[in-house]
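Researcher: Re-running this chain for the archive, since the previous output was lost when a drive failed. Same request as before.
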Amino acid sequence: MGLVTEPTGGILRTSSCCNGRWTMRHPPVVDHHTMRRRNAMEVALYARVSTGRQQQRQTIEHQFARLREYVIAHADWHLADTHVYRGEGYSGTRLNRPGLDRLRDHAALARFERVLITAPDRLARNYVHQMLVLEELAHHGCHVEFLERPMSDDPHDHLLLQIRSAVAEYERTLIADRMRRGRQAKLRSGRLLP
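Model: Regenerated structure tokens:
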């Protein structure tokens, strides 16, 4: 009915007697890898390409390679394989994209604290959608970091992001209009079948 503690080679063993039987209790096994991850900041990656031509050129893999290098440069960050989100073949003008939807759902569950994206137009090309997603992630305590356009809490940085987003949206509209005009010109000249 007593408790005996004896040091053995740096490990503390505790024995107890219950009804005349002695049992040995060992300290719990510590998984240092798990402890390191618990102390590390969980991060997620998001990359997007909208066309098959971009997919063939493997630009999404290039984006992920850059993002992973950035994570490796921060020793106190941890990236789980399940926190890599892809937006292949989806236009940045759409808000309903499977990869982005999963990212938003997991952010709501507090699975990570930071999202890394190469540039704001990879998140969304529509300014309103971009601000909506950024505010939603911030509401869940998730910080978004753009590699090409680092931001701080400075109001000037937020203004620059808004201006860049508006310019990207304007640029996208111009490109779409030029493509439409080009197709119409080819149709009229007979070089393109409807």
